[in-house]
Amino acid sequence: MNQVYEKLLNCYNQVREKTSFEPKIALVLGSGLGGFGDTIDVREVVEYSSIDGFPVSTVSGHNGRFLFGYIENVPVVVMQGRVHYYEGYKMTDVVLPVRLMCMLGAKKIILTNAAGGINKTFTPGTLMALTDHITSFVPSPLIGQNIDELGVRFPDMSCVYDRKMLSILKNTANELDIPLREGVYIQFTGPSYETPAEINMARTIGADAVGMSTAVEAMVARHMGAEVCAVSCISNMAAGLNTKPLTHEEVKETADMVAEQFQKLIYNTIINIGKELAI
Ligand code: HPA
């Protein structure tokens, strides 16, 4: 059997030994959004470290566990902490948790992250809904033997971010009076922040925000046919747009500053998705 699939099934079976919970929506929490867990009616917690073979994050500010529970009556699974390619994991390990949540039943997924602002009209604290992404600078997580059980060899990526979920997200932001911008996310490997020349290039090819996580997760979710929605918290202006050097502390500080708004937006979006899509 395909080794990547075998590992995934092995992790899936271990989680299923711990819980029979069937989530409808999966949520990945980015930097500073860890507190979102407190807003959920949590029924089960599965620590990543309790799953043999599961990638565990090494970055400060990233916990490592799945929360299973309800947001109003919507069954959700929440990833508190993710792993990144720059930590040294294979790209197939980086995306394993997202695939696992889809296998557990989530047909819709909401991805969040902290990102650098490339679009000059953004400021730290801006929230940006992803309309598309550029992954050409990171290895594809779909490289290798295709996992036919999950999806096709050559998946379509012409509409990664689901229009219906995006419209619910935008309406929710409107209702809550939370400013929400839209844009294209570009993923680089990190761990260094980019150079000003790289940011100029990224802007020239159409990127509005830059990060080190979300696009490959969106790609595997689409490969499996899940519907994807994603929001970036612009935690800093990208390299060259600011006189100060970039630091992880700045990223965490801004993410914490807008955490309350961000949490409110995601919480209510999930409720509205539940209502509109009859979950
Ligand atoms: N670049 C890449 N990733 C990031 C940034 C950035 O400026 N800010 C937060 N994540």
Write out the distinct hetero groups bound to the structure.
Answer: hypoxanthine
Outline type = globular
The count of helical stretches stands at 8
Described by strand count, sense and barrel closure, the largest sheet is: 5 strands, mixed, barrel
Q: Please compute the radius of gyration using only Cα atoms.
A: 17 Å
Strand order of the largest sheet: 5-8-7-6-9
- The overall average pLDDT, rounded, is 93
**Distance, first to last CA:** 34 Å
| Alpha-beta content class | alpha/beta
Your description of this structure?
- It is a single chain.
- With 279 residues, the chain is of the alpha/beta class.
- The chain is built from 8 helices and 9 strands.
- It has helices at 3-18, 91-94, 96-103, 163-176, 196-204, 214-223, 248-257, 259-276; strands spanning 25-29, 41-47, 65-71, 74-80, 108-117, 127-134, 181-187, 209-211, 227-237.
- A 5-stranded mixed β-barrel has the order 5-8-7-6-9.
- α4 crosses α8.
- The longest helix is centred in the C-terminal third of the chain and has 18 residues, at 259-276.
- The protein is globular and about 50 Å long.
- The model has no long low-confidence stretch (mean pLDDT 93).
- The site of hypoxanthine (HPA) has 13 residues, from β5, β8 and β9.
